[in-house]
Write a structure and sequence with these properties.
12 helices; Rossmann fold; two-stranded parallel ribbon; seven-stranded parallel β-sheet; alpha/beta
Length: 329
């Protein structure tokens, strides 16, 4: 069976592509990173370098595919709205158009639980809960718009399944844990609520969920699934585990949430007015993620997909630490 993976040169995309190849699928990997793409080609993957905002090229990449797993996204706590919209909304729309034209058996869309966030403590969030009136940032806003495009395609007859994986981590992660570690090297590791409960997801568990959806029956079409490790923990305990595995001293700076949120708001104004200085060291979104509890209910994935997270948080942190020691600069 032919499978197209978008965002294949990204963190999740690489792990997924490797597993698909191991299981005997014929994989077309679509991504931007030519160096990683060259490595994939040597492993027997058909690599297509490109940008999903190129409508004609994207549709062409979808032809003759049986399945499409759409992992590509512009994911960042900071950036211009147009950047987020072009990739997350227009790019998704182009892949959906390609899927419709190719007549694929199933389109799997990787969304984000950031669409749930509203700067409140929220526990055991289910997929069908009412979403906040306003999105917390451009990423969440455009991922929500992308889901609307997916829902429209479902109504038009495309077999689409959506997952919302929470805080993916593991070897090759270049976002969540590396950001924390680099911040700690600079002496800036803020902790606004050490008891905030968070869900995280080891990357292989997300891949397992995606592979389950590939072979799941047709009646799951149109459904959405939260994916996590199913093991909510205080953020302090996860960070302590990370630093212990790396043999580093864990020395967070404790800042009251209200103070941190106000500082982040001011920094955002400054960086908006003077965009060439880059990303703020704090954003309101990053403050909220660290300070507010957010856990997801994964019962639907367990019941419908038989999903069980096989790699624990503890084992996942160990695997990341081994990788980080070898590859960190």
């Amino acid at each position: 069976m032919n499978v197209l993976v978008t965002g294949a040169t990204g963190f999740l995309g690489q792990h997924l592509t490797n597993q698909l190849i191991e299981q005997g699928f014929s994989v077309t990997a679509h991504g931007r990173n030519a160096n990683i793409g060259e490595q994939m080609s040597r492993a027997g993957v058909c690599f297509v370098q490109g940008d999903l905002t190129n409508r004609e090229a994207t549709i062409a990449a979808c032809l003759e595919q049986d399945y499409i797993i759409h992992c590509a996204a512009f994911s960042s706590p900071w950036g211009r709205y147009r950047e987020f919209y072009r990739t997350n909304v227009e790019g998704t729309e182009n892949v959906l158009n390609g899927a419709m034209k190719a007549g694929v058996r199933r389109f799997i869309h990787v969304s984000s639980p950031s669409i749930y966030m509203d700067y409140r403590n929220r526990l055991n969030i289910m997929e069908n809960e009412t979403l906040p009136a306003n999105s917390v940032n451009y990423y969440a806003q455009t991922k929500r718009l992308a889901e609307q495009k997916v829902d429209e395609a479902t109504k038009n007859g495309l077999d689409v399944v959506t997952i919302r994986p929470r805080a993916i981590f593991g070897p090759g992660d270049n976002a969540i844990l590396p950001r924390i570690l680099r911040a700690s090297k600079k002496g800036f590791l803020p902790l606004f609520n050490e008891n905030a409960l968070v869900d995280v997801t080891y990357v292989d568990n997300v891949v397992r969920a995606l592979l389950s959806i590939l072979v799941a029956p047709g009646w799951i079409a149109g459904r959405k699934y939260n994916i996590t490790n199913g093991d909510p923990r205080p953020i302090k305990s996860i960070l302590q585990l990370l630093f212990d595995e790396l043999g580093l001293e864990f020395r967070p700076i404790r800042i009251p949430y209200e103070v941190a949120y106000s500082i982040a708001a001011m920094l955002e104004v400054f960086h908006t007015l003077i965009p060439w200085v880059g990303e703020p060291v704090l954003t309101r979104y990053s403050v909220g993620v660290i300070a507010k509890s957010q856990t997801l209910n994964i019962d639907a994935a367990k019941i419908d997909l038989g999903y069980e997270p096989l790699v624990s948080i503890d084992e996942g942190i160990k695997r990341f630490a081994v990788w980080w020691k070898k590859h960190a600069s």
